[in-house]
Amino acid sequence: MLGLKPRDDGAAEVGVIETTTDKKEYKHPQYQNFVLVDCPGVGTPKWPKETYLKSLNLQNCDFVIIISGSRFKENDAWLATETMKAKKKFYFVRSKIDQDIHSESENGLKSSEVVTKVENYCKQELSKLEFKNADVFIISSRFKLREQFHLKRLINTLLTDIPTLKRDALILSISLTIEPVLYEKKTILLERICKIASTAARRIFSKTNGLRILHAEIEFYQEQLGVNEERLIGFARQIDMTIDAFKKQIDLRSSIILNDPLQFREFCLRNTLSRKDIHENDHRSTLEKFFSRKNFNRFCYALYDLLMMCFEEALRILKLISTKY
Ligand SMILES: Nc1nc2c(ncn2[C@@H]2O[C@H](COP(=O)(O)OP(=O)(O)OP(=O)(O)O)[C@@H](O)[C@H]2O)c(=O)[nH]1
Ligand SMILES: [Mg+2]
């Protein structure tokens, strides 16, 4: 969820031996108020069941994710019950599905069949532990596989469950490029257009400053939607393509405009979009309210256009990557 590999700075420690012995907070690299707390499992020497809840400080959490790499056991069910009593949401997550897929491939099972088998088995086990109809999210933490399996559904569920006020912060913190997250991000970024355009337009006697604000915002779009240089290199590597071939295939235009000062200036100061080009649902009324002010208009159009461009690029990346798996 933090978009980090195990060896990256700020990533949680992982290891084959007991690794997490104390509670540790992991701040999102870009969004410091999104904090994931990694805790040892229930019943480990330093974290016995008797003092677990006190150590966990459940009241300070928004939700609890209970992760198991094998079967869910009594202690997992106990933690879920306690979380429920504290009126917080909990989620059962079964990781390491890639290992099951690997083991079962020799038996001729397809990966989707293995996922279903493990999911049903986990549900069965949880039902024996008095969790009838529990939802179980099957995932793999392997960096290359993290956007596959049920992580998409887990994130969607989190987004539905989270208190509204915290939703935007959560969505912007999610570094995964998965379709529902992209759509949510687009909505949040659209809502920022007026404010950014207005700030930039107020620098009316100094267009350069205004343009600098737009430039920073569009870099933020790229970062958020996963079409910045760093993510592109990662995606290209993931599907064994050279970065140039990848960019060509995606028909990447946003970074070309952003990296060429002249083109960028021209793009921001033109005013080619007409009202009918603005999609019906895309906050038309908010945008229209301000349509009379010239620079504001131009900046709104430019931001809108570039946001859509980045968004379409992100969708094309997603499509390309999914066809390669
Ligand atoms: N193949 C595979 N290995 C995984 C996956 N998730 C974790 N691992 C590996 O399993 C081992 C244990 O992972 P950790 O993340 O340290 O597990 P943990 O539950 O935090 O363990 P403690 O901190 O000791 O409680 C490490 O070697 C990880 O690399 C996964 O989805 N697939
Ligand atoms: Mg750990």
Largest beta sheet: what is the strand line-up?
3-4-5
Which range does the strand content fall in? 5-15%
Number of helices: 14
Query: What are the distinct ligands in this entry?
Result: guanosine-5'-triphosphate, magnesium ion
Q: What structural category characterises the helix and strand content?
A: mainly alpha
Oligomer: single chain
Shape: globular
Helix and strand sequence? EEHEHEHHEHHHHHHHHHH
GO molecular function: GTP binding; hydrolase activity
GO cellular component, one term: membrane
Protein name: IRG-type G domain-containing protein
Keywords: GTP-binding, Hydrolase, Nucleotide-binding
Structure, briefly:
Keywords: GTP-binding, Hydrolase, Nucleotide-binding. The protein folds into two domains: 24-164, Rossmann fold (3-Layer(aba) Sandwich), CATH 3.40.50.300; 177-324, no CATH class. It is 56% helix and 7% strand.
Describe this structure in words.
This is IRG-type G domain-containing protein. InterPro entries: G_IRG_dom (IPR030385), Immunity-related_GTPase-like (IPR007743), IRG (IPR051515), P-loop_NTPase (IPR027417). The protein is mainly alpha-helical and 325 residues long. The protein has two domains: 24-164, Rossmann fold (3-Layer(aba) Sandwich), CATH 3.40.50; 177-324, no CATH class. Helix content is 56%, strand content 7%. It contains 14 helices and five strands. The chain has helices at residues 49-56, 74-85, 97-105, 111-128, 151-161, 164-173, 179-202, 207-225, 229-238, 243-250, 254-259, 261-269, 284-289, 294-324, and strands spanning 24-27, 35-38, 63-68, 89-94, 136-138. The protein has a three-stranded parallel beta sheet with strand order 3-4-5, with helices on both faces. The longest helix is centred in the C-terminal third of the chain and has 31 residues, at 294-324. Bound molecules: guanosine-5'-triphosphate (GTP) and magnesium ion.
